[in-house]
Write a structure and sequence with these properties.
Structural class: mainly alpha
Number of strands: 0
Order of helices and strands: HHHHH
Number of domains: 1
Largest sheet: none
Length: 86
């Protein structure tokens, strides 16, 4: 089996439309910005760990507002979006 398929499950889904039905859903306006909720390195992990603590007591909309207010968190997200964009 292709190692890329094992690591990136969505690749397999997109390449096999006969097996899967894919639907795209419009995101709420407060999510229409560049955010990163994935872990590829230690910076991602540390960033999401901080956010998770906040999110446990809040909803996603408040969490996104929190990200907007925390320049350090947002900058790390933007840096890693650039770093890991293919």
């Amino acid at each position: 089996m292709d190692i890329n398929i094992l690591e990136h499950v969505t690749k397999y889904i997109y390449e096999n439309p006969q097996k899967f039905k894919i639907y795209f859903k419009k995101t709420p306006n407060f999510l229409n910005k560049k955010l990163r909720f994935t872990i590829d390195d230690q910076d991602d992990f540390d960033n999401l760990k901080k956010l998770y603590v906040f999110y446990q007591k809040n909803d996603i909309e408040k969490t996104v507002k929190y990200i907007d207010e925390k320049e350090e968190i947002m900058n790390k997200m933007l840096t890693n979006i650039k770093k890991y964009t293919k």
